[in-house]
Design a protein that fits this description.
CATH class of the largest domain: Alpha Beta
Radius of gyration: 31 Å
Number of strands: 16
Largest sheet: 5 strands, parallel
CATH topology of the largest domain: Rossmann fold
CATH superfamily of the largest domain: P-loop containing nucleotide triphosphate hydrolases
Structural class: alpha/beta
Oligomer: single chain
Strand content: 5-15%
Number of domains: 3
Distance between the termini: 63 Å
Length: 469
């Protein structure tokens, strides 16, 4: 048990409310006194109807419920109480219990079953198990809340607000989701948001990228393969659908999946059944499937990039499409994203958030960002790395590579053919900037950037840099 869990259990104990429903007064008294001595808040009820009334008023975390009682037996109380009080853990107690009764109570929703005469040691142990479970649940919920905050969709545009509404509604369903939009718009974030807002939040989410996997491996990655089917396959391998049972599989760039494979995927989506490669045995998985694509569904259909049966399935009520507009079509989101990524970069570099000049901010807002949100994020990171001061002006942005780009270009210096040339160009611009900052003083510049003076001189000569700047 972690220290956080131990602390959480102690805190839970101090505020835990326990209800005892039993028609035998001596048992109520002894059990209540013992639990109060341990610091719990305790109330009692002498029969089923009184117990249901106290449950509604007291809202206990734990309820000890006798099975054999006049007026209303414990199983009937349990049947009514479980759906009404989902946060209460019911522990059944009985002096005439049978295996059949215990099984029925457990299926109805009881946490545990204790036989009379009651062992106080067993009672306290059961409560500790409940508190541990609650502490772990609270810790997991806190982690999920933190994760949801970290993957928040940043922006105030009406487009993004609509997407958030879709995510909230879709997360409550088991629909297959197609997330479309240009690379870098945030398709991965949308899929993560749906997953972590859904009932599958505590389960695994994995990706299968059809654009990066060889086509003959996509089926194996998704469905698995039997031992010996192909050379080198010396043991049975499970696919993603099998591994994340109850979780979510995100199939990225669905248009790159072979059409025959798409048809097999449709069969799984309709029946939840699939077979490993090399096996005729049907297996069942309840993994939810999301897909991403660069093009809208109507364009995928018109260009023949997806199979007819997959297109038909995606157009039914079993599926839902979310389209993410490119960043250039929602400029009102840019400023929020700049501040968001600035906060992240500042935190990563253990510094304060840099102040961007008014003119610099206008330049950033006017930029078309062909690489979308991902490009903006990478650029802000580069600004933080290359700008030593806490104030960022236009010349700092230009030094970091902000130039008006033609449609189709993905980043700065796209005309540079090799990595070596790109590195040389970067070094030259970097040295010019640093020499400027140090008033042309080579010794001071060398000391500031951690280079030997003689080595810096060689670099200046090699790049043809004018020192009298």
């Amino acid at each position: 048990m972690s220290n956080n869990q131990a602390t959480s259990i102690h805190e839970e104990k101090l505020k835990t409310k326990i209800l005892i429903i039993d028609d035998e007064a001596p048992i109520r008294q002894v059990l209540a006194d013992s639990l109060r001595d341990d610091g719990y808040e305790v109330q009692v009820a002498s029969d089923g109807p009184a117990g249901l009334l106290t449950l509604a008023q007291f809202r206990p975390h734990v309820c000890f419920l006798d099975i054999w009682m006049p007026k209303m037996d414990g199983l009937e109380v349990l049947t009514q109480a479980v759906p009404q009080f989902p946060d209460t853990h019911f522990i059944m107690i009985s002096g005439h219990g049978t295996i059949e009764t215990a099984v029925k109570a457990t299926k109805t929703g009881a946490w545990d079953f204790i036989e009379k005469p009651l062992s106080l040691e067993k009672v306290h142990l059961v409560i500790e198990h409940v508190l541990k479970f609650r502490a772990e649940k609270n810790e997991k919920q806190a982690l999920l809340n933190k994760l949801r905050k970290n993957i928040a969709l940043v922006g105030e545009s009406k487009v993004l607000q609509k997407i958030r509404e879709h995510i909230t509604s879709i997360a409550k369903t088991q629909q297959t989701v197609l997330i479309t939009g240009e690379a870098g718009t945030g398709r991965e974030l949308v899929s993560q948001n749906i997953h972590y807002m859904s009932s599958q939040a505590s389960r695994t989410i994995v990706e299968v990228n059809c654009a990066t996997l060889p086509q003959d491996l996509i089926e194996i990655e998704l469905f698995g393969i039997e031992k010996g089917v192909l050379p080198g396959i010396d043991k049975t391998r499970k696919g993603k659908l099998e591994l994340v049972e109850g979780g979510t599989v995100v199939i990225e760039e669905i248009e790159e999946m072979p059409l025959t494979m798409q048809s097999k995927l449709v069969q799984y989506l309709k029946t939840k059944k699939f077979s490993r490669v090399g096996s005729g045995d049907a297996m069942i998985s309840h993994a939810r499937v999301f897909m991403t694509a660069t093009y809208k569904l109507q364009d995928l259909v018109s260009t023949g990039k997806i199979s007819q049966d997959l297109a038909q399935y995606l157009q039914t009520d079993e599926a839902f499409e979310i389209y993410i507009e490119p960043l250039k079509n929602r400029p009102e989101d840019i400023q929020s994203l700049i501040y968001h990524f600035s906060d992240i970069s500042a935190k990563q570099m253990a510094s304060f958030r840099k102040t961007i000049s008014e003119q610099g901010l206008k330049l950033l807002m006017k930029h078309t960002w062909p690489g979308n949100v991902r490009e903006l994020k990478n650029f802000i990171e580069r600004v933080y790395i290359l700008t030593p001061s806490d104030y960022v002006d236009v010349h700092d942005l230009k030094f970091a590579g902000l130039t008006e780009k033609k449609e189709g270009q993905t980043g700065q210096h796209s005309d540079i053919s090799t990595f070596r040339d790109a590195r040389a160009e970067f070094e030259k611009e970097y040295l010019i900037k640093k020499i400027q900052e140090n008033g042309g003083n080579i010794s001071k510049t060398a000391e500031a950037i951690g280079l030997e003076r003689s080595y810096l001189h060689r670099k200046i000569k090699a790049y043809g840099i004018e020192v009298n700047l």
